[in-house]
Amino acid sequence: MTAAILDGIVLGLQFGLLGVGLTLVYGLGGVLNLAHGSMAVVGAIVVANSMAAGAPVLVAVGAGLLAVGVLGLVLDATLMRPVYRLRGESRVLLSLLLTLGVAFVIDGLLVWRYPIGSLGIHIGGDPVEILGVRMRTGSLLASAISIGAGTVLVAFFRLSTAGRAVRSVIQDEVGARLCGINPAAVRSLIFGLSGVLAALVAVTRSMTAPIPTTAGIDFTILALIVTVVGGLGSVAGAFSAGIILGIVNTVSSFYIGTYITTIMLLVAAALTIVLRPSGLLGTRA
Amino acid sequence: MTDRLPESGTAAVTAVPSPAPTSVLQKYWPIIATALILGLVPLRYGDSRATMGIAVAGVLFATYAVSFNIIFGSTGQLFLCIGALAGVGGYSSAILADRAGLPLLLSMVLAALVSSALGAAFSWLVVRRSLDVIFTGILTLTLSLSFSNLVLGQRNWTGGETGLVVDAGSETLLGDQIPPYYIMLGLLVLFLVVYRLLQQSHIGWAFRALRDDEVAAELAGVNVARYRIYAGAIGSAMLGLAGAVWAHSEGFIGPSTYAFGSVDVRVIVMVAFGGMGTLLGPVLGAVVFTVVDEILVSFSQLREVLYGVVIIILFLGFKLGVISEFRRLVTRLRSRPGRRGRASELR
Amino acid sequence: MLEVEGLSAGYMGDDVVHDISFRVADGAAVTIIGSNGAGKTTLFRAVCGLLPKSAGRVTLDGADISDLSAHRVARAGLAYVPSERHLFPQMTVVENLSLGAFPGRPDPKTMAVVLDLFPQLGERQNQRAGTMSGGEQQMLAVGRALISKPVLLVLDEPTTGLAPKLAADAYAALAVLQAEGLTLLIAEQQVPLALSLADHGYVLENGRVQLEGSAEELENDPEVRRAYLGVA
Questions:
Q1: Which of A89, B117, B169, C156 could pair covalently with C83 via S-S, beta carbons 3.0-4.6 A apart?
Q2: Is the confidence at residue C44, as pLDDT, over 90?
Q3: Across the interface, do A267 and B146 touch by the CB < 8 Å criterion?
Q4: How does pLDDT run across A184-243, given as a tens digit for each residue?
Q5: ipTM value of the model?
């Protein structure tokens, strides 16, 4: 049981990282990026290919994250422009449709390039013992990266001026503009950052166990669930929800079964929407 | 709610009321024309089983699209569970007819009612909790995904991965693709007639009012909640019925038949392309995208990529849907003084 | 300091304010008075870059800011405090104030000055802005604007929702600021208060400037007295 919960917490951190980007993009601009998961897989593939070409782990990871960051910025600069010109519901719908198209393009290209798709990032080394539980170096590195990224992120938002600026745009965009903050620049930055975070998750997941190249949609749906349960627009919410759902996921998969586990996560999202739409820590009225 | 993609054509057209069409012909000529045109397809392609198979699927998607149009196009509820609602109808009817031995027609009707109840329940939730587009979408998405998982998991009832052979009704329909085509077409015509009737009834009026400005509609006495639930119930019933008819006419259903990726995505694109809130928009969208799908089949590996590219180009260009754009163009031309002669020529 | 020439602006194609011209001299306090719907807020939003203009020019300290977006106008030294305040509700008083100095960190001296000017803010430094009263929020909004050390402070109806004593206090604080060299532009419905502080004023009606003059001239103008001061 301890093993399951520990695993669940690490998984939960990854869930959180996956959801943070999506929730921020929504909080800042009221748009939903359905290509989120696909972008993550692209990052993992770049990392895997770099390592296959001989690059050391950290350099490869850096390359992968950079690639996705650039992809995110490009998408923001091109497709998201017409989306931001609209308001309210039209904006949401167009963002859904355009990013869905992007998801198709990316997934399609990945399936075409890697038809027997599954990618794993192998980290060598003997298993290590933590709290009486044996963990492979891959899992260990994945956990370390996840925890590190999570901490940096939280510190960024709580303590730095830039992080505060991002929060300000979510809370009151007009107020942010009056303080000299450019909301469009913030949105672009966070769009790119959200891709990087998602890619980080895909990379750490594939360090633990191989992921299929079609995992993009699954990641997106997972991110959606975490975002909804945590509260749209809340960073702390995404992490809280992530950890809770991570533990639920691991414990339930272990003791019950995968189909039911998936349904449980979906039902968690559904119940949140119906009973408490603002999620755990969301700012919605 | 006032920022919804507007059904701009109708708003302008109804503002200047023309004398109400009286004869059946005047009211229903678009439907009749569509029925005739689509009815001619087997005459040209009847020989090819493959083509007819595609054609039946195309008409099926048109029925899905018209149903979705009622739910989303008329009342703005983003039900991302089109396939699931159709699937509930399909599997229910199959189980009722094969396992419980109920007569075919009764099974299908009951199946439609089950879907209808489910859809109405979701509408009720949407209304009760004042859910906006994103939450409605995600909520219904969880239904879709849960349905997929249920189908895979509950093997004794649904056949799981391998799918379910549907015996009832297949003796009359299996083999020759032409009668199934006309059955589907008949269903489509029925749905279009229902849509038309709704449009011209007080329900349709309420739909338009609440789409334009929900608050104003409430203040004017329109019970927004009730009409949303009507839309959910009617649209879902239609989806369930279509799903059931499909199950019996195909004789076989599996997890991919009603999956989100196979159904919802395509239907949404079809309706958005053709024009939401219009009568024939969904049909146009279904026809166009059925053809597009066939063209892309030869590029099977890159099909998904091309589909994505098509979606992106489409929505960057036609944000309102073809028919709505066309209508807007027409009303804009109409409203220019001294140009009436030319505008009517254009139509 | 601020020159506005021929400004017209509005919403959805229809102009609400037409051909407005006015000046605010360095170190002066200028007020724009007018009743509800006269167009004061629209005018200010257009000047500050929140609303696109259909015509006209705005110059700040010699530089043309007509086409600048709101955040650039803010960085150019024009601090705008709208009547809705637009604070960050989940952030504390200190966090709100700090963002006023974006992109930099706030100058500790300026921070001290602001907290001194508004002691209630000093008492509530870690309170969330969303939980504060109207008067406190107004002070916070002004304080946030001041942290950026602006050359021009623009206030839209700063006394909205304030009890008379608080309103008077607010104007006393503004007088102090003006004495220290800050240029002020204030839109006001409460005409007596506005004229007590301002050197110069403009009367806005139906989107156009109807009258202008020194504070004294306006105070003694029969139309102003009748319409805004309630004197027969």
A1: C156
A2: yes
A3: yes
A4: 999 999 999 999 999 999 888 887 778 888 888 889 999 999 999 998 888 888 989 999
A5: 0.89
Distance from CA of B269 to the nearest CA of A (A): 8
pLDDT digit string (tens) for A144-172? 888 888 889 888 988 888 999 999 998 89
CA-nearest residue to A276 within chain B is: B129
C-alpha closest to that of C69 among B340, A182, A266, A269: A182
Q: Which residues pair with C60 in a beta bridge?
A: C2, C63
Subunits adjacent to chain A (3 or more Cβ pairs under 8 Å): B, C
Q: Which residues of chain C lie closer than 8 angstroms to A180, CB-CB?
A: 71-72, 74-75, 102-103, 148
Residues of chain B scoring pLDDT < 70: 1-26, 168-178, 318-347
Cβ contacts of C197 within 8 Å, gap of 6 or more: C29, C31, C171, C174, C175, C178, C184, C186
Rounded to whole angstroms, the Cα distance separating B97 from B106 reads 8
pTM of the model: 0.82
What is the C-alpha to C-alpha distance for residues B192 and B212, in angstroms, rounded to an integer?
A: 23
User: Which tens digits make up the pLDDT trace of A98-145?
Assistant: 999 999 999 888 888 877 667 766 665 555 565 556 666 777 778 888
- Taking the Cβ of residue A177 and every Cβ of chain C, the question of whether any pair is shorter than 8 Å is answered with yes
Interchain contact, C70 vs A181, CB within 8 Å: no
- Cβ-based contacts of A262 with chain B (< 8 Å): 145, 149
Residue B280 vs residues B65, B285, B344, C12: alpha-carbon distances, Å:
10, 9, 20, 32
Instruction: State the Cα–Cα distance between residues C211 and C198, nearest whole angstrom.
Output: 15
Cβ-Cβ contacts under 8 Å, C86 against chain A = 172, 174-175, 178
Instruction: HSE, CB side, 13 Å, CA atoms: give it for residue B328.
Output: 13
Cβ–Cβ pairs < 8 A, chains A and B: 123
